[in-house]
Each structure stands twice: as structure tokens, then as C-alpha cells.
Specification:
Layout: E1 16-19, E2 29-33, E3 38-45, E4 48-53, H1 64-73, E5 77-85, E6 87-88, E7 91-92, H2 94-98, H3 105-114, E8 118-127, E9 130-131, H4 137-147, E10 154-156, H5 163-172, E11 180-185, E12 195-201, E13 204-215, E14 225-233, E15 239-245, H6 250-260, E16 298-310, E17 313-314, E18 320-321, E19 326-330, H7 352-356
């Protein structure tokens, strides 16, 4: 008899989440840590394995060690939802994970050996011929607990219905590189492509120097601002580029172009121009694995200060924003040289292995 194909096949949209400001009470939710990695659906049908990204693209070639772990560990016919992560120095490292998306097979092979990724499962969508999408969340969790044996590159995310424990996870697990908490209605179905979950992420503010801009790509240069380039000073007073703010309305983009025009400069005294800019500071527009040439930007005299909200930082010495900042307000009361790295909130360190075990005790 010919084998029966999986009842779910890629591409399949994962279930999504809506952001909320705080962990809710009085609701029947199953809480999980929010992993900072690549969302990934796993399809296994015997020796055929597909690692599917959130956008529907295959990830197999970039994570061969995860493909092998799936074959060694999972049932022969199964569909999972989860996250690809890389841990380094006892915490998740998104930079190291992003390095895995590389065009050179030799580089992928080397990193798979020296910095292997792991897969953290948090939902099961099908087993054998059975589709579980319409089963309640807690029932799917029970199935997952029975099927998955953690270890050897595959893990099961911790979960709890205890709101107080979820709040402790929210505070402690950030120190291991996680970025919040997910809440799933305990009785809910799995709804591909719909925002049926909630997510609570860390939100912070910082006062930053505006030291450059980029013109909006869909307008004539000089008429509308696309984004503002932000900087912070280190302990030696060196200004490093940490990220950008954008997402302005069209009218505001034009207003900013007029407001900031007098600050435009090409002077070598600008901290990101001239010979002194090559002293190890982080600069905007640099070549990286995603961009093969320098991205153009316009230098501004670093005089104005604005306040942003942000969720988290990444990297070290110096750090940068993990996601684009959100504009809060101008700070005319702040001097540019007072905007320093020491205002960034750094969570206490926490061992990522403890998170995988669901432990709350600080490392």
C-alpha cells in the first residue's frame, strides 16, 4: 500500500499574536516564554523533512543539523510549530542565528558544527493522519508532551496557566535572551495566519542623539525624511550608531525635512565622518551580510535629542537596537553629550538551559 501523505503540507501560515501592554489576569490562558529566534514549522513525513519559515520559505539548507535532529527524535509523520534558536554564552544570540542564513554551503556546514541551532517546539498541528488544528490548545499541549522527548537539539517550551509564574518568567527569562511572554487561550483552536494569541514584550525608553537621516525612498531626495539615525555615547564619549526611528506619517516626513535641513553637514568633524570615524565606533550604512555596499545617509550636526521607546538591544561593546525604535518626543532639555549607553536597561543574566527546563531560580 502506498504511504498516505501528511494531512498538512507546506506552505502553512503559523498562528500569530497581537501585542498587549501587560500580562492579563482573569482570562483562561496558557502562557509560554517568547523565544527570540526564527519562527519555524516542521513537517516530517518519513525521511522527508521541511523546515518552513514564517514567510513560507524552506530553511533546510541553512540548518542541516536540525533536519537530522528531527529525523532522529520525532515521530515519522508529524507537523510542529516552534522556533529555531542559537545559544551562546548561556543566552540566546540572534546575531549568531542570523549568520546561519549564508549563501556559502561551506560556511553553513562550519556553523552547524561550531554553533548549532536548536528547535524549540510549542505546538503540534498534526500527527500521523490526524489534524489537530481544531483541538483545544491544552489538548494539543498534552499531545506534544507525550510525543516529544527533549534533548539532542529539540526542546519543548515551558508552559503554565499560572499568571504569577508567567510574570516571573517575563522578568527573569529576558536575562537569557528571551523577549517576553506569549498567551494562548486555553480552549482555542490553532488558527493559521490569524492573530489568536497575545504577546507581551519588554518596553523601555532612551534619549538618543539624532546624528543623521535617510530620505524617504518614494520621494524626491530632500523633501521627506524616511528615518532618523540615532546615536549614544560610550564611556569615552565616542558616539556610536545604535539604530533608527521611522514610521512617520507623510505630512510629518515633509515637516521633518524642513526642520532638520539646517543641520545637514558634510564636515569631517562629524563623529561618523572623516578619519576619526574609523576608530572602532559603530557607523550607519556599513557593509554587512545583508548588504554588499555602503548604504547612503545624510549627516546631521549631532545637536538634537529625542526620546524613543524600544523593546530590546542586541550585540555588545557597543550594543544596538534589536528593532527600530519608536519616536516618543523631542527632548530640547537634554544636551547631546549626555545621551550615553548607561541609560539602557540591561536585564540580569539568566541561563538559557534553565529556561528550557522551565526553572525560575536565577542562575
Amino acid at each position: 500500500m502506498a504511504p498516505v501523505p501528511l494531512p498538512l503540507t507546506p506552505p502553512l501560515q503559523p498562528m500569530l499574536a497581537t501585542a498587549v501592554d501587560e500580562i492579563p489576569t482573569g482570562k483562561d490562558l496558557l502562557f509560554e516564554p517568547k523565544w527570540d529566534g526564527f519562527r519555524c514549522l516542521v513537517f516530517r513525513d518519513g525521511d522527508d523533512v521541511v523546515l518552513q519559515s514564517r514567510s513560507g520559505k524552506p530553511l533546510n539548507r541553512y540548518f542541516p543539523e536540525v533536519v537530522e535532529a528531527v529525523k532522529r527524535t520525532l515521530p515519522s509523520r508529524i507537523v510542529l510549530d516552534g522556533e529555531l534558536v542559537v545559544a551562546k554564552d548561556d543566552r540566546l544570540d540572534f546575531d549568531a542565528l542570523a549568520e546561519r542564513i549564508h549563501p556559502a554551503s561551506s560556511r553553513v556546514t562550519l556553523l552547524a558544527e561550531t554553533m548549532p541551532a536548536a528547535y524549540v517546539a510549542f505546538d503540534v498541528l498534526a500527527v500521523g493522519d490526524d489534524v489537530l488544528l481544531e483541538r483545544p490548545c491544552t489538548e494539543r499541549r498534552d499531545v506534544l508532551l507525550a510525543l516529544l522527548k527533549p534533548g539532542d537539539g529539540l526542546y519543548l517550551t515551558p508552559a503554565t496557566t499560572n499568571v504569577e509564574l508567567a510574570r516571573q518568567w517575563f522578568e527573569l527569562f529576558e536575562g537569557a535572551g528571551l523577549d517576553g511572554v506569549i498567551g494562548k487561550p486555553a480552549a482555542s483552536e490553532y488558527t493559521p495566519g490569524k492573530r489568536s494569541m497575545i504577546k507581551v514584550k519588554h518596553a523601555r525608553t532612551a534619549d538618543c542623539v539624532v546624528a543623521g537621516l535617510r530620505w524617504h525612498k518614494d520621494t524626491e531626495p530632500g523633501t521627506a525624511v524616511g528615518s532618523l539615525l540615532l546615536g549614544l555615547h560610550d564611556d569615552q564619549g565616542v558616539l556610536h550608531h545604535i539604530g533608527v526611528v521611522g514610521s512617520f506619517k507623510a505630512a510629518r516626513r515633509r515637516e521633518l525635512a524642513d526642520e532638520l535641513r539646517d543641520l545637514i553637514t558634510s564636515d569631517d568633524d562629524h563623529p561618523w565622518l572623516g578619519p576619526d570615524a574609523e576608530d572602532g565606533r559603530r557607523l550607519p550604512g556599513a557593509i554587512n551580510r545583508w548588504r554588499g555596499e555602503h548604504a547612503s545617509w545624510i549627516a546631521l550636526r549631532p545637536e538634537r535629542v529625542l526620546e524613543i521607546s524600544y523593546t530590546q538591544t542586541e550585540g555588545a561593546h557597543p550594543a544596538r537596537l534589536r528593532h527600530n525604535g519608536q519616536f516618543s518626543r523631542w527632548r530640547p532639555d537634554r544636551e547631546a553629550d549626555s545621551c550615553r549607553y548607561d541609560q539602557l536597561d540591561q536585564p540580569a543574566r539568566y541561563d538559557v538551559d534553565s529556561v528550557l527546563r522551565g526553572e525560575v531560580k536565577p542562575a
